[in-house]
Amino acid sequence: MKRNNNCTVIFQAVETRAKHERREKQQKANLSLSVKEVWKECTGISASGLDRMEWTSNFAHHIKALECDDSWNLEFDDKIDPKNPDPGWRTFMWCSSAWFKCSGCQRRWPADKVKVAFHMRRWKKKGTVKVKRFRQRCKSCSNAPMAMPSIPPKNIDILMEKLVQHIEVKCYGKAVDFGSGRSATLEVHDNHEPEHCEACKAGVCRSGGI
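^ 3CxxC-type domain-containing protein, sequence as received from the core. Prediction below:
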C-alpha cells in the first residue's frame, strides 16, 4: 500500500510539472502577442505587416546566396492555386508550424503541418515569388472568418532557405542538396480537423511537396 501511495505522489508531481510547463509556454506566446500589439501602437505597423516584413527581409537575405545578376522580389497572393500555376510559373509547397488567432473570440491555437505554397518565375533578369499561407478556422466560432497563420521567425527562415533552394533547381537548373531542414514543431494537443482547414478544402493538405 505504501508503494502505491509513493507512485501516486510521483505521478501527481509529474502531472503538476507538465501543467506548469504548458502554462509557461502559453504565457510566452501571449507575451509575444503583446509585443506585437505594442509595436503597432508605436509604429503604426500591424502584426500582419510586421510578419510580412519578416518574410521579405528573410527572403532578401537568402536570395543573396544565388550570387546572380537577377533581381528577385517576394509578394503575398492568396489567390494562387498550388495545383494550377499560370504558364511559365513553377510551384513549391512546404509545411511549417504556426499559431492562429480567431478574430471573433480571440482564441489562439497552435498547429503543425501548416501548408505554405509558392509560385515562382524568372523572366528577363527579374524573378518573382508569390506566397500563399493556408488558413484555419476557429472550431469554437461558427461564423468567424478563417485566421491567417503566424509562423515563428525560425520557421520562416527555414521556409526561405528551402524556397531559394527550389529557385536554384527550377529557375537556374542547378543541382542542390536539400538536406532535412524541418521546421521547429509546436506542442499541439488537438487533432487536425479538415473541416476547419483551408488546405484540406483545397485538396493539398495531405499531399507532399510539389
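The two ends are 59 Å apart (CA to CA).
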